Amino acid sequence: MSLRLAVKFARRELRGGLRGFRLFLACLALGVAAIAAVGSVRSGIEAGLAREGAALLGGDAELDLTYRFASAEERAWMEDQATAVSEIAEFRSMAATDQDRALTQVKAVDAAYPLMGNVQLEPDIALSEALKAQDGIPGAAMERALIDRLGLSLGDGFTLGTQRFILNAMITREPDSAAAGFALGPRTLVTLDSLGASGLLSPGTLFNSKYRMLLPENAAINAVETEAKDLFTDSGLRWRDARNGAPGVSRFVERLSAFLILVGLSGLAVGGVGVSAAVRSYLARKTEVIATLRALGADRATIFKTYFIQIGILSLLGVAIGVTLGALVPVLLAPVLEARLPIPSAFGVFPAPLIEAALYGLLTAFIFTLWPLARTDRVRAATLFRDAWDGASRLPAWPFLFATASATALLVALAGWFNGSWWLTFSTLGGIAGALALLAFAAFLIRICARALSHRLRGYPRWRWAMAAIGGTGEGASAVVLSLGLGLSVLASVGQIDGNLRQAIAGNLPAIAPSYFFVDIQKDQMAGYTERLENDPAVRRIDSAPMLRGVVTQINGRPAKDVAGDHWVVSGDRGVTYAAQPDADTIITEGAWWDADYTGPPLISFAAEEAAEIGLSLGDTVTLNVLGRDITGTISSFQEVDFSTAGIGFILTMNPSALQGAPHTFISTVYAEPEAEAAILRDLATAYPNITAIRVKDAIDRVAAVLTSLAAATSYGAAATLVTGFLVLIGAAAAGADARTYEAAMLKTLGASRRMIAASFILRAALLGLAAGTVALLAGVLGGWAVSTFVMETEYSIIWHSALLIIFGGIAATVLAGLGFARRALQARPARVLRARE
């Protein structure tokens, strides 16, 4: 019976329209829409990657080899499996003119490239035409950034190594560029045949060869992959296929969207504060209705169900609005998004992210509305008639507490399940919960302190009125501090993390990093190379080491991935070196180095930190595939390897007799005065055209650009949280409008001027904004410190300009929200207000 009556009462209550619930709907809809939009964009990108997987990869499948070309056996197998095969070599080199030189990522292709898609050039000519030789000089195409950097025009000449090329076209689009991953320099396209006399692809030089294949329509791609791995994995061959043509992009999009959705949950939490405030305010206005129902015999369950059903229906409406917006916005903005994204996308309506957002919205609404709704169960009719909510217990009964805790645990579990990273989920949501707890405690302290100060400021009426209002029994102070504070906390954390990353990249590294990395130095060039640098007084230090690349294939006779999982050391090829004795800076943490003249079975000195992560011990064996040959060594020591200095660092060092017979080159780092860098580069590039120079500052700038984009994306998510917080501020200001009108009428009656009352209102808002901003800054600093220290592993310092902006932003937001509703209170006539109150 109580449920039927509750439904009937709820239906009648809903006839009154949405008055009082606009804030409720706006907060819920905005939070859900932000999460749904991020999820929809992610799904659109994933759909585009899946649809264009073969085009992104440049074929149905790709076999990747490190620093060697395919053997006759491997090439014969590819020809047998595929209807077409394209061979590509990729490496870094220096493009040089008579006046300048710059780092470039070279892609040397054969006549079959591209197997899928088209390279778009300017002028609009075929790739074969652009790369064709003229008067014995091969052609080339470059990206605009490199053309501008070298000051070239079409028809001008440049060199790669010792080979002269003619620039015939500018690259405007590469069909397989997304699959190439991060590059340190702009692209140059040439033919494989043209590099024969360049000296850039000699044995031991650093390059990757890739073989794209078009498979027959009826080919079973799983079977082809299994056969390739069975035949060639031990030779260092890596497989990719069109099912995931750009795995790096896919992983990046997945991880970034997971983080942004968690940031969106902070927006929902802010919205939850507004939802709770709206429900509390609505029920306070329904005191007489509730009291009448209780007096007529309605039990507690019926009243609770009445308003639970009503709020539930409105929650469904708010979630539906948010889901609709989150689905439509990416579709409507698809032309803009597709034009800005460097990867294919297929935007549409995807059910999965919308369902995820809807579940988050419903659970958030349940968590934040159950508490105020539960208070109706603890209030007697007589108390309601006497003094509204003053007699109600603030703490609901234990079943409601249990339901709230269960719903919160379910929301956390869903977040972890959907984004696939429990660590990220617990850390992010734990930070949000911690910030909310800190803000709630701060709001409590602020009210107590304001109440105490109001009695001590008798000679300062404006301040006393402001303090009395903050310390009053209303919910305004709590709503302002919680809603604005959480939004500002997220923004403050992002600002601190971004600022410290920029500081680490632009400030700390150049002070300790080398000027240049030089790679592909041949053995017979080391003497002349070293002599040039050692005789330069501007050069402070030179570090050189032999350089090979190897793939860790086995650990203790088992497949490496079975032992180390997805650890980065076993994911792809890694730098390997050899040394007879450790240098002066090497710190051995465990075990012992081999003798200088040791010629026995291969021994390994492994990076200590990475070894601990993988679970390696002294005496374990590691099998490396170097240039198609397996070398198994025993770990004899662990050493500290510091990659943060941007100097030379190897995960794995072996004794010389294990590796020095393999073709290889040397790498070197040069620490020099800035004014000498140009001369060093010019002299070495002229004497040794095959050597590639990587200017460390340029590499750092490219990394900084990527990190800036990440920070910008996260800032957009934080901004959505802040907008929700501002909506809650407006709602709190609107809810307190009647109280401020009555307060202004009383003060006018007692002789206060409008200016004094307005100053009191501004002081009240500014103090609450200052409190919210200060607490948010504390939460943001703690969050930034945690991420910088434990995730980024960088030094941390407070970015004060960002911190001060957060505080000023909090003050400005509360003042603007408060002033919007203060005008009516200041203009109201006291007599009319006081008569209406009676």
Automatic annotation (TrEMBL):
Task: Give the UniProt subcellular location, in the record's own words.
Answer: Cell membrane
Q: InterPro entries given for it? A: ABC3_permease_C, Membrane_comp_ABC_pdt
Q: How does it sit in the membrane?
A: Multi-pass membrane protein
Keyword set includes Transmembrane:
yes
Transmembrane portions of the chain: 259-283, 304-337, 357-374, 395-418, 424-446, 467-492, 716-737, 758-786, 798-822
Which segments of the protein form a coiled coil according to its record? none
**Alphabetical UniProt keywords:** Cell membrane, Membrane, Transmembrane, Transmembrane helix
Q: Where is the ABC3 transporter permease C-terminal domain?
A: 262-375, 719-827
Annotated Gene Ontology cellular component terms? plasma membrane
Q: Which PANTHER family match?
A: INNER MEMBRANE PROTEIN, MEMBRANE COMPONENT OF PREDICTED ABC SUPERFAMILY METABOLITE UPTAKE TRANSPORTER
**In its UniProt entry, what is this protein called?**
Putative ABC transport system permease protein
Origin organism is Sulfitobacter undariae
